[in-house]
């Protein structure tokens, strides 16, 4: 969607802006207001460079070396050396969308005029994004304090024309080669600029925004999956009535119950169960309590979105140029607020997957599935049906429980004990991305299984269910003898992750 343009100025970016640039390659432009703000603050920094008193990051070393005075003729080298030495990540390459979010959010902070960098530095960041150049960042290296130092340093190194990047075609090339091919002049850093480019929570924040975007689609898909499972199990829809949900007025719970009610509307299976003498007074918790669990996940995401909004409105740097013209040291780079939100989401995501797996398991057990064959097998004994699909779910759910262990409760001192308490927010972000991927897979398998159960019932499902199953059947055949199952699971996962499943449901009913 290259036609979309995101303006980066002195105000806050929106989450939609971040997603557009990170995932859809929207172009970025700096506003005239931001250029003026950066020019004004740069005058203040250059005045400090001439001061005989020490100023952190301008005329001193960094971290535990903050008491070391740097001669004027070495201060440009100081900034370049800082970037080169801090570009020390290791491990697997971080995803392109994460790095683009990282670069954009650092650009956003530069554009506030609170960091003291020259406008041309920010303009180069914008040009790198628009050229599709992606610095190569390793997964390990950030402690989330002083911000995401190593990941941001790799981005700064690329703007200097150094390090390794991927060009717009995804080829690994040197930073200098990529800039030259795009007609971008490398930046030669001056006083404070190296520090300003690496001192922020942009990596963990970018991943939080992307996670919220993913969950905005996954949660309604989990609601839909629950409704399909209720049909597959010939369950009841009476517990989802709005007046019952209103007795416990959590907004997320009400929203999830509404989705389930909408999906189950006009279900022949549910209506038939009532008409033929339905005797179960109440369904199992994994069915009956779906709005309570899914709704709690919704409300957790709402809290995380509140945190993300505050961070998007922040100017995180140290030292920072204040509105009244002071240059002050501060601790705003500490990632605790973001780290906590990321960890909270990992807990909620694990539970969302856990209840999904429990619903799937019920459909496979003839003692609890109310008339379905064992494991939904065509010929139980000869065929195993979806037996091992549930094993796959179970292995993922167990992994998600481990990933739910908070990273933000950990801390390890660095920089000769100057940085003696760190947030581990980057680690929280990395494990949340893995958790969301796992939860998408678990929900996809539930949909795959519930669709098979509904087909095997041979009774009319709801219009929404029918639309979802019809769309799924375009990529996965209906019930039959055992087939190679992994490709069908992969197709179901793509069906969920691409949001085609959600689109199919929304083509029939309003699930907002």
From TrEMBL:
Domain of life: Bacteria
InterPro entries: Aromatic_Lyase, Fumarase/histidase_N, HutH, L-Aspartase-like, Phe/His_NH3-lyase_AS
GN (gene name): hutH
Pathway where it operates: Amino-acid degradation; L-histidine degradation into L-glutamate; N-formimidoyl-L-glutamate from L-histidine: step 1/3
Keywords: Histidine metabolism, Lyase
Enzymatic class: lyase
Keyword Thylakoid included in the entry's annotation: no
Principal location class: cytoplasm
Record keyword Lyase present: yes
Family membership noted in the UniProt record: Belongs to the PAL/histidase family.
NCBIfam families, alphabetized: hutH (TIGR01225), PRK09367.1 (NF006871)
Pfam families: Lyase_aromatic
Molecular function, one GO term: histidine ammonia-lyase activity
UniProt EC number: 4.3.1.3
Protein name, per record: Histidine ammonia-lyase
Reactions catalysed, as given in the entry: L-histidine = trans-urocanate + NH4(+)
Subcellular localization: Cytoplasm
